Amino acid sequence: MKAPAIAPCLGVKDTQASVDFYEKIGFTALPAGDDPNDDIRSLLFGEDFALMVYRDAHLRDWLPVLKDRTPGAFGMFYLAVDDFAGYVAKIRPLVNATKEATHNGQNLFYFTDPDGYVIGVVQKQEW
């Protein structure tokens, strides 16, 4: 697996709850290490690295500059899938949908994860 140029690491309230959510919608979590104070988990989508989740308290200890930040983000992440309609039909009953739209002929489906991060689903394409 090739490492991405930028790897998002999301601060979450409960790492296992986030892993359970993402696995439910088609991601795979790599095993955690043996240190209970370091519960960072890498998540794959298909065979590709997608993101990491890390308990917010542990992330604040690791990077004190984040000490007063709350989980969630102003912005969004996009998830490119091979079969937009099929994937959206599969996850629709499992997520909190926030918006569906078509922009420049491309279908978009937005939902939030348990910590309020917004994810937009799009059809995979070549640039």
UniProtKB/TrEMBL annotation:
Database matches in Gene3D superfamilies: 2,3-Dihydroxybiphenyl 1,2-Dioxygenase, domain 1
InterPro entries the record matches: Glyas_Bleomycin-R_OHBP_Dase, Glyas_Fos-R_dOase_dom, VOC_core
Domain (VOC) ranges: 3-124
Pfam families noted in UniProt: Glyoxalase
UniProt name for this protein: VOC domain-containing protein
Species whose genome carries this gene: Streptomyces hiroshimensis
Record lineage: Bacteria, Bacillati, Actinomycetota, Actinomycetes, Kitasatosporales
